[in-house]
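agent> Task received from the user: take the single chain below, predict its 3D structure, and emit structure tokens. No templates, no multimer pairing.
agent> Plan: (1) validate residues, (2) run structure prediction, (3) serialize to tokens, (4) report one or two observations.
agent> Step 1 OK, no nonstandard residues flagged.
tool_call: predict_structure(input=
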Amino acid sequence: MGDPGTTGINVLLLCTGNMCRSPVAEAFLRRKVDAAGRTDVRVSSAGLLEAGRAAPDDNVAVMTSWGIDLIDHRSRQIDAEMLAAADLVVAMAREHVREVVVNVPDAWPRTFTLREIVRRGEEVGRRTAGQPLDEWIAKVHAGRSPAMLVGSSSADDVADPMGRSRKFYEAAAEEIEELVNRLYALVWGEQ
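)
tool_result: status=success, residues=191
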């Protein structure tokens, strides 16, 4: 996995427009990675819709209160190259995982919703020191079936705040930050 000729881990975060949830998740995960001095982890985000859109003002304001600047963020649209380069794809809702699996079926074993990978990861346990990421992901993936992607699920989907009041952006940021912290602990904690 990952880009040929490079080392490290590529994590791709995905949502509908790459304006609200996935840039927030990218920012929180990047902050964890940077604080730990991890130069072996690359974090990016994308969406299903066309590229070039700015983050909504409420999203920018909420993230500013967390000390994160999204003012210059512009959305990117997911493509097959991004998916092929990703060692782990973390989506904000089942619909995003479905889109990935339909377009790049080989990505299924390494594509999860944020809530799902945290839940399943906590069930199988933390990645151990020296354990290859793909081995840990295979354990997390074990027992999954594409039928699990049907419909939406409050157990798997982070609610989209787009077009809603600021309190929904705040709630989404709080939830994403907490889930990203748990994901980071599962994948890179105590290694």
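agent> Step 4: summary for the user.
The beta strands are 9-15, 41-47, 88-91, 111-113.
agent> Done.
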